[in-house]
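Amino acid chain:
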Amino acid sequence: MKPSRALLIALAVLFGLALPLGTLAALARPLPLLTQLWWAVLLALALLALLDALWLRRLATPQVERHLPGNLALGRWTEVRLTLQHAYGKHRDLLVFDQVPADMEFEHLPQRLALRPGETTGFGYRVRPLRRGHFVFSRCELELPSLLGLWRARRFVERSDATRVFPDFARLYGGQLMAVEDWLSQNGIRQRPRRGLGLEFHQLRDFRDGDSLRQIDWKATARKRTPIAREYQDERNQQIVFLLDCGRRMRSHDGELAHFDHALNACLLLGYVALRQGDAVGVSTFASERDRFLAPAKGSAQLGVLLNALYDVESTRLPADFATAIQQVLVRQRRRALVVLVTNLRDEDDDELLGAVRRLARQHRVLVASLREEVLDEVRQQPVQGYEQALRYCGAVDYLNARAGLQDRLAAHGVPVLDARPRELGPELVGRYLAWKKAGVI
């Protein structure tokens, strides 16, 4: 409990008057009547303040109910609502502040509310998570005024509510409103022309202009006495496993998101598209505090399983052990699959990475997806105007050349590499997946 502004002003006025009264008394020119009046006012104010404080201590605290979504999207504003219930017989004003967890921005807090008798009062404010994970809203803070307005009491209402912050999956679910191909094209994903036919038989139908002679089913044609063609579709029983690097090389930032968050969003984007295409999707993490493996599975529910398994995974300061991570995939994933290694290739990655990826490629189809740091491209494009800028430019060029050399060596051994900026990784991955799928590569 603390004094209000009105009480502080009243005390300041009284002590301001005490200064001339004391000065006159020291000069042997006292004003007894004014002095007695001053003491009377001071004692009355003290009595009123005491009674007002006792009344405020006995005042009941309103009940607070928080309406919090169970899931929040990283980086997106979401409304949280507070509802206050009370049994006051008169109008009361109070200040409300909800204690938002760290790593969340908020707007419209604190708020001043007017509580009216017999009414339930509520308001909303907005939060924006800055990182993924599990968050708890522990309590709400209220500031209540006293009856005479001389005091303000701070009350804490314990109200624990939990929520989980997922990657920004809202745009993934938005794709369910339209055909996958139309939605992908709106996100900047371009599909390459299909080569040849799909690998999986779909149905028989009448022969049409443009069909090749290889599609004719001669037995059905003989029975129907009209040309009948076989229709094929892309194989829908394939498996995709994301091998996600959670180590220190993924801690670089591009805008508000770290490279790891861009990589995670890209994996979820490709996982969504693959599940819509009828394929099975799984994930394996490495260089994390607790490595996780999720076996490939099909169906729309698998995207929710992926989100629940990965929403709280954070990048660490551990080095990436590619050999151990790939060995675990070989042990756990027996069936042939498309393994997408998502990492940030560095110039020091050489024989160990090459040997491990080649061993993985003997059993699975492998794609190495590497995030390119945009700051290096910016340094390379800036004009050199001094000694320090020249050193920075030469260092960046040397690093990029070594990195490009590693990618060339991987490609020379039959391991494709997708080098993309963090923001472009998702569309590039989906484009490569669809191109391979239509070409019958996977």
Q: What stands out?
A: The two ends are 69 Å apart (CA to CA). The longest helix spans residues 32-58. Confidence is low (pLDDT under 50) at residues 175-179, 191-198.
